[in-house]
Each structure stands twice: as C-alpha cells, then as structure tokens.
Amino acid sequence: MDPWAGSVLVIEQQPNIDIPFNAPPTEVTRIWHIQNGQKEEITFDPVDQYTLQAEAFTQAVLEEKPVPTPLEDALNNMKAIDAFRKSARNKH
C-alpha cells in the first residue's frame, strides 16, 4: 500500500476541497477545489513538510526564539477534529 495514498474530502456544502492526507515528499502535491460544479486543481512543488517543521523548530530552539508551532496550534487542531467528529455524529 502506498503510504501517500488517500485523501481527505472536506465538505461543508460548497465549496469542497479534496486534500491528500500526506503530501508526498518526492512528488508534486495536488489538491482539488470544487465549487459550483467547477473543479480546480492546485499544485504544490515536492516538499518534506516534516523535515521543514523539524528544521524550523530546531532553529527556534537554538536561537532562543518562539517556536513556529506553538502549543495553542495543537490545541486548536484538536478542537477542529472534535468539531468534525461532532458534526459527523449529528450529520450536519
């Protein structure tokens, strides 16, 4: 199984966004924005987002600067995930 296969389809009426679950580090990443029956492909150059995140964190620590991904980001991500799950249970 391809570890980069799969996507997340974000549906909130219109528009819809189809996003790969993980951006492949060696291939162009494609996402699709769907609105009013029109599908637009958006591409991003290959990038290893985990390496970039680790490098940015390391640089912030070494330079004694604020980290680029504060703890509040993780908390807000969990709030968003909880809201998605609640919405799915309530079917809206």
Tell me the distance between the termini.
32 Å
Beta-sheet strand percentage? 25-35%
- Approximate shape: flat
Overall tally of domains: 2
Please report the total strand number as a whole number: 4
- The strand line-up of the biggest sheet is 1-2-3-4
The parts where pLDDT drops under 50 for at least 5 residues are none
Order of helices and strands: EEEEHH
Annotate the secondary structure layout:
Layout: E1 7-11, E2 16-20, E3 29-35, E4 38-44, H1 49-62, H2 71-90
Antiparallel strand pairs: 1-2, 2-3, 3-4
Brief rundown of the structure:
This protein has 92 residues and is an alpha+beta fold. The chain is built from 2 helices and 4 strands, in the order E-E-E-E-H-H.
Which features does this protein show?
92 residues, 4-stranded antiparallel β-sheet, 26% strand, flat
Protein described:
- The chain has a four-stranded antiparallel beta sheet with strand order 1-2-3-4, with no helix packed on it.
- The chain is flat and about 50 Å long.
- It contains two helices and four strands, in the order E-E-E-E-H-H.
- With 92 residues, the chain is α+β, with helices and mostly antiparallel strands.
- The chain has helices at 49-62, 71-90; strands spanning 7-11, 16-20, 29-35, 38-44.
- It folds into two domains: 1-47, no CATH class; 48-92, no CATH class.
- The protein starts with 6 loop residues before the first strand and ends with a helix.
